[in-house]
Each structure stands twice: as C-alpha cells, then as structure tokens.
Write a structure and sequence with these properties.
Number of strands: 7
CATH superfamily: Vaccinia Virus protein VP39
Helix content: 40-55%
Radius of gyration: 17 Å
Oligomer: single chain
Order of helices and strands: HHEHEHEEHEHHHEE
Number of helices: 8
CATH class: Alpha Beta
Structural class: alpha/beta
Distance between the termini: 29 Å
Largest sheet: 7 strands, mixed
C-alpha cells in the first residue's frame, strides 16, 4: 500500500487527510498549473456523463476544494453533496460555494469514503475525481458508494491512467516521475506529498483491472473514455 509519508506508522487514511490539510492552500494553483489547465476540461466531460438525469441528488466523493461539485451544479440538480476527509480542503470549497451563491444546492460534509454518512439508496448518481486512488481500501470505498446509490444509479469516476502511444507514453512517465514531484514539492513545500501523488497515479489499477473492481463492488460496467491521449480515463458504471 502506497502512503504519502513512508516514514510514519499511521494509516494511509490518516496520512492522506494530513497531506491534503497541509497542501490545501496551494492545491488549486498546483492542480491547474501542473495539468496545464486540462483538468478543467476533464471535469466538464465528467458532468456530461450525468446527462439525462432529471432533478437528481448527486454525491461527489473526495470533493476536495469543490471544483467538480460546482461544475455539477450547472446541470440543475436538486442537491449536490460533497464529502472529503480533509477539513482544510473543505474550508476552501465552502468559500468557493459561498462566492458563487451555490450554498442552497451544494452541501459539504467532512467524511470517510469507506463509511459514508448517508442512508442506503439515497443518491441518483455519484462522482469521484482523482480520489479513488487515495482510498485506503478501494473495494470498501466503491462498495460504500454502491450502497448509497439507488438501483440503476450512475457512478462516474475520473482518474489518471497510463498512455500507451509512443512517444507520449515516455513523455508522460518522465513528467510524472521527474517534473511533477520536483515542481509540486517546491510550490507546495511538501515534497513527500508530490512524490506520493504521481506514484499513486502510476500504480492505480486502471482499465480492465478497475473494471473488475467496480464489478466486484456491485456495479455494471458501462464504458471507459480516454482523456487526452490516455493521461486520464472517465469510467462509467451503474448500480446493479
């Protein structure tokens, strides 16, 4: 199991919470800078996969600073519930929500993806953007999302994947292993965090492996949509 701070004995969950609390003030800057702004397009593409839902109630797991929840609000849901481990990330999200006057639509809660504070079959859809690789127990986290979805409820996951095409594959690996940890570490002032984030992305069970994880958690596979030559993938599944 990959952890942010390898020299500490605390659980991955505790370390992930601590890491995001530390890097929260510079997270948005780094997120957009290190992705060259492409992450904004990817989030819009996630929301496109929620099309066709009528007055839905949507859960955004690992909501972070709220960018995806705010994007989801544009499709006029009844409510969006954003859940995250990190109190500091949520504090930034709340400021954004208030500034955009979305506080009547977006509800933010500190919570654990593996013990979601909601009743069974509550949500019409759920999203996770760059969060599932941070779950301490991937299968438990996916099973919890499945529990709180209504039958037929939609899950849309955005996560990093590994390009397969030369020379983009080689450039991607060089960037993730050399440039991102160095640059991110300098700006965030947490070198271990920006060593963990690309490492966790490179070791995430992508593609067919992640499809199996979804199916084992009670989902029916719908599709996988490669983003930007395979840097990221949008996975779509529904609750059986």
């Amino acid at each position: 199991m990959i952890k942010p701070y390898k020299d500490l004995e605390s659980s991955k969950k505790e370390q992930v919470r601590s890491m995001f609390d530390k890097i929260a003030p510079r997270y948005d800057l780094l997120n957009h800078l290190l992705s060259f702004g492409i992450d904004k397009i990817w989030r819009k593409n996630v929301v496109k996969q929620l099309g066709g839902l009528t007055a839905p109630i949507i859960l955004d797991v690992a909501t972070g600073t709220g960018d995806l929840a705010i994007e989801i609000a544009k499709i006029d849901p009844v409510a969006v519930y954003g859940v995250d481990l990190s109190a500091e990330m949520l504090n930034i999200a709340r400021k954004k929500v208030e500034k955009k006057r979305l506080h009547m639509t977006i509800q933010l809660k500190q919570g654990d993806s593996e013990a979601l504070p909601f009743e069974d079959r509550f949500f019409d859809a759920a999203t996770v953007a760059f969060g599932v690789r941070n779950f301490e127990n991937l299968q438990k986290g996916l099973s919890e999302i499945q529990r709180v979805l209504k039958p037929g409820g939609r899950l849309v996951v955005l996560e990093f994947s590994r390009p397969k095409v030369f020379p983009f594959k080689q450039l991607f690996y060089f960037y993730m292993r050399r440039i991102l940890p160095w640059w991110g570490g300098i700006i965030s002032r947490d070198k271990q965090a920006y060593a963990y984030l690309p490492e966790s992305a490179l070791q995430f069970p992508e593609g067919k492996e992640f499809r199996r994880e979804l199916e084992n958690a009670g989902f029916e596979w719908q599709k996988g949509i490669a983003q930007t030559l395979g840097i990221a993938t949008i996975y779509v599944a529904v609750k059986r």
